[in-house]
Amino acid sequence: MNLDDELQRLFADERLDVPLRPGATEAVVAGARRVRRRRIATGAVCGAAALSLLAGTAIMLVKPGPTQSVPGASVSATAEVTATERSDEPAPTSVQAPGISGTRVGSVTGKPTTSTPAGSQPENGFDGTMPFGPDGYLALRLGMTAEQAEATGLITPNVQPISSKGCKGYDYKGAPKEAARYAVVISPKYGLVRLANGPARPLTAESLILGSSESDMKKAYPTSAGSHGAVGEWVTQVPGHEDKRYWFLVRDGKVSAMRLELAVQDCYV
Fold this sequence. Notes:
Blueprint: H1 3-11, H2 24-62, H3 73-86, E1 95-96, E2 103-105, E3 112-114, E4 129-131, E5 136-137, E6 140-141, H4 146-151, E7 155-162, E8 168-172, E9 184-187, E10 191-196, E11 201-203, H5 214-220, E12 233-238, E13 241-251, E14 254-262
Parallel strand pairs: 4-11
Antiparallel strand pairs: 1-2, 2-3, 5-6, 7-8, 8-9, 9-10, 10-14, 12-13, 13-14
């Protein structure tokens, strides 16, 4: 007997038969149905969950998040707006300081600088470069009476107010001098006969100032008109004014002092 015949005999043996209990078939079918229903329910729940997850993800992708969620985004936006707003701003300029004539505040340092236009008198009478001649200096004019000169508020009597010749001698206010060394001299007969340079820097019409060289002085005023006898002095006619004189004192090759005088006076030699 070969193997196939032996196996057929074995499977045909009645001792291998397992008798079925009553209702076994219905129980198996019912169990299969329950398993199927569970699988269907589980699949439905999983499908719903998957759909919910997908929907949530789609909402997150579509809805823009707050600016803070992207580091640096808000900073970049602010910087861009600031740059745009400032691009139209005007460049810094000098600003007129309120209540101060002729004073401007600078755009880099912030410090005020004062300038006095040539030909105008500063508020205190002493600041800036001022025209010297042809007939006056500051608010003072050759030929003024003592009352007129004093009314300017620029002069005060010297400690020796009357000279040896009977003329009145004055100092510039705030700049007292030694006795009988007058900055301003006023004759009872001719009026104001001498004006020395004061605290305001003198500037002649020919652009001579204190510190100009002697050669520049003599180029501007080449002709001498006498002398008072002082060493280093140069007396010359004011150009275009025969009745007026410039007196310059030279030290170390430079102009160190100036005076404006009447050609005719009786207060000094």
